[in-house]
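My current task is to audit a protein record that another person submitted. Alongside the sequence sits a line of tokens, each denoting a local backbone shape. Where you disagree with what is written, explain briefly why. This is what I was given:
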Amino acid sequence: MKSVKEISTESKILDRLKNHPDSLTLAKYLFADDELQELQDYANNVSIRRLGFNDHGPVHMRQVVGNAIKMLNILHDCGIKTSLEEEQIGTFEDSMCAIILAGLMHDLGMAIGRQGHEEMSALLAQPIIERALHVVFPDNLHRRVIIKAVATEAIIGHMSTRKIHSIEAGIILIADGCDMTKGRARIPMAINHAPRVGDIHKYSANAINRIGIHHGEKKPIKIDVEMSAEVGFFQIEEVLLTKIDSSPAKQFIELYAGVTGCERKCYL
């Protein structure tokens, strides 16, 4: 059974895709895919209960998709082309499909373990990507090939440890970094009491109240982070900024962060 949060996030995603028929069909197919759901659930079990990390399961992966769709739409509104569009090899719809696939599968490798999980995610994702694209584009090999390639790049590149080159992969990298609010740390904070490696990530994420993604003032995309305590700056500087700095989409991002009631610090 899906959680209330999963269902709510899916509804928001589908609403944002109402003007993108192929992407909408793809998202509906993936949300109904039992194997993908089982993999997401098990990855979260390993992440939280076995390894003591934050949520890396179905809610997180859906949240990343929602963030990525919002950012990609902002770039589109500003007249900025995706890599597939710029190279005249694909459409905006193809780019949207790629980020949906990548967002929903980028952490599947946590089902195996943390080390190298991005490569394991790409491995586990391939059969699901292939059959999903056969459903949406049964007679278009070209679209299936380019979408799978971009989605795979985004999955492998989401940890900022590997050089990526497409705007699409860069958006997934940032969208992943933007999912760091206190809700993501709630379960591991509740069930893990003994000190463990990586606890600073849980405590810093627990200080993040809200992350807004909006049209920017000086650059197309504005990311605005509100936190309850200064420990949240660790999450900004060690996680989000690292991902933005490694992203081909960095030039389109402005970042502000601060404690509630205090002036926001401008990072980018």
Notes: The first helix runs from residue 4 to 16.
